[in-house]
Amino acid sequence: MSALLILGGARSGKSRYGQARIEGFAGPLTYIATAQAFDDEMAERIARHQADRGPRWRTVEAPLDLAEAIAAVRDGAVLVDCLTLWVSNLILAERDCDAAGMALCAGLADCRVPVALIANEVGLGIVPDNALARRFRDAAGWLNQRIAKTVDEVVFVAAGLPLVLKSGA
C-alpha cells in the first residue's frame, strides 16, 4: 500500500480500521489531524483519539495545509483523519476546494511513505435543504472521487466491516 482511502459513515469504524492498517508498518507513525477544537465536546474527542493511539504516534495538526503536512513526513507511515473535516475547514476559510484537492492528489502521487486517508461518505442521505450544506456535500463527494482515482486502494467501512472497492493488488 502506498496510498489508501477509507470511506464510511459516522461511527462506522473507518478510523479504527485506518489506524490498524497504518500500525502494521514499521517505523514512526504520523497522525495528521484536520479537526479543530471549537468547543469542549470536540476537545474531548480529540483527547480521546490521542490517548487511543499511544506513544508510537506523533500528531501533526493541519486544518488547512494538508498537502504540505503530508509532504513533510519523510519516514514511517501516515494516517490523515479526516478529509471531510478538511473540506469543511476549507469552505469556512473561503479557500478553493478544487485547487486544494488537486494539490493534495499531486502530493499523494509524490509521497514517499504509505498514507491512509479517512473520509466520510456524505452522499448517501437526502439532499440538504440549504445552499451551504449542498456545497459541502458536493465538495466532499468530488474530493472523495478525485482521491479514489489517485490512490492505490479504496475501502468502504460499514458497521466495522471493510469492503474493498479498489484493490492495489
TrEMBL record:
Cytoplasm recorded as keyword: no
The enzyme's E.C. designation: 2.7.1.156, 2.7.7.62
Any GO MF annotation of the entry: adenosylcobinamide kinase activity
Enzyme class: transferase
Catalytic reaction annotation: adenosylcob(III)inamide phosphate + GTP + H(+) = adenosylcob(III)inamide-GDP + diphosphate; adenosylcob(III)inamide + GTP = adenosylcob(III)inamide phosphate + GDP + H(+); adenosylcob(III)inamide + ATP = adenosylcob(III)inamide phosphate + ADP + H(+)
Keyword Nucleotidyltransferase listed: yes
Pathway: Cofactor biosynthesis; adenosylcobalamin biosynthesis; adenosylcobalamin from cob(II)yrinate a,c-diamide: step 5/7; Cofactor biosynthesis; adenosylcobalamin biosynthesis; adenosylcobalamin from cob(II)yrinate a,c-diamide: step 6/7
Assigned protein family: Belongs to the CobU/CobP family.
Its job: Catalyzes ATP-dependent phosphorylation of adenosylcobinamide and addition of GMP to adenosylcobinamide phosphate.
NCBIfam families the UniProt entry points to: PRK05800.1
Protein name as annotated: Bifunctional adenosylcobalamin biosynthesis protein
